[in-house]
Amino acid sequence: MTSALRDDLATITVLARRDLLRFFRQPSRLVGALMQPVVFWLLIGGGFASTFQYAVAPGLGYMQYFYPGIVVMMVLFASIFGTITVIEDRHAGFLQSVLVSPGSRAAVVLGKSLGVSSVGLTQAALFLALAPLAGFTYADIDWATLTAFLVLGAVGLAAFGFALAWITDSSQAYHAVMSIVLLPAWILSGAMFPPGEPGSALASLLHYNPMSYIVSGVRGALQGDARTLAPLAGSVAADLTWVGLFAAASVALATWTVYKRR
């Protein structure tokens, strides 16, 4: 193993471990990470349950339809709240110290992205324990496909959040950008409501929204039949390819941002 590779691996490991330790050393954060989506799922799911109708699956309840969207939302929120520390670490001088270390800037991006992703995946795993309450049985879930979509989606969202945080000077500005970029992307991904008739504006937006492919893959994997209720008409392989491209593009964007703006 070359010296440069060892330095990169050390940088990635330290940064990823740092985010995980931050998360597990704050019990209130751990409890809040689980309770917030549960409350969100119960309140909104219960509110729309009596009026929800889905022509593709007439017997499907809203609590079951909404559940995959909440799983993706947990990964998204972890990405938002995890990468906001990039701004704090820059102001405190921590990241400047990391940048002058032997590790490359790409290793800094990967380390932070993997750390934030690990936190989001931990939260999603805790919430997935409630899958039977939403009508999904553990035996029917395609765990390999579910894991692939969540891991790639988490890395993509974390790296994208890193890029936005790196070019943002304040936490307030970062939250403002997130509220007009990522949150609408989640809402318009098929997470909260079906896309409508083919050819409609929302149905067309789905195909240009990377988060749609994450939601589509998670929904299909949870039900065990990847296409029946998935909002996109493509195959699992096609959805996974798009999510993989989104993750790779996000990491490349974050790395380029770090190199261009120090």
Number of domains: 1
Quaternary structure state of the chains depicted: single chain
Number of strands: 0
Structural class: mainly alpha
Individual helix count: 11
Largest sheet: none
Strand content: under 5%
- Percent helix, as a range, is over 70%
Give the overall average pLDDT: 82
Terminal Cα span: 29 Å
**SSE string, helices as H and strands as E:** HHHHHHHHHHH
What is the CA-atom radius of gyration, in angstroms? Answer: 19 Å
Low-pLDDT stretches are none
Shape: globular
Question: How is the topology of this model organized?
Answer:
Elements: H1 3-24, H2 27-48, H3 62-83, H4 85-92, H5 94-99, H6 105-128, H7 143-166, H8 171-191, H9 201-206, H10 210-223, H11 236-260
Folded structure, characterized:
- The chain starts with a helix and ends with a helix.
- The chain has helices spanning 3-24, 27-48, 62-83, 85-92, 94-99, 105-128, 143-166, 171-191, 201-206, 210-223, 236-260.
- It has 262 residues and is mostly helical.
Quick tags:
262 residues; mainly alpha; 11 helices; globular
Brief account:
The chain is mainly α and 262 residues long. It is 74% helix and 0% strand.
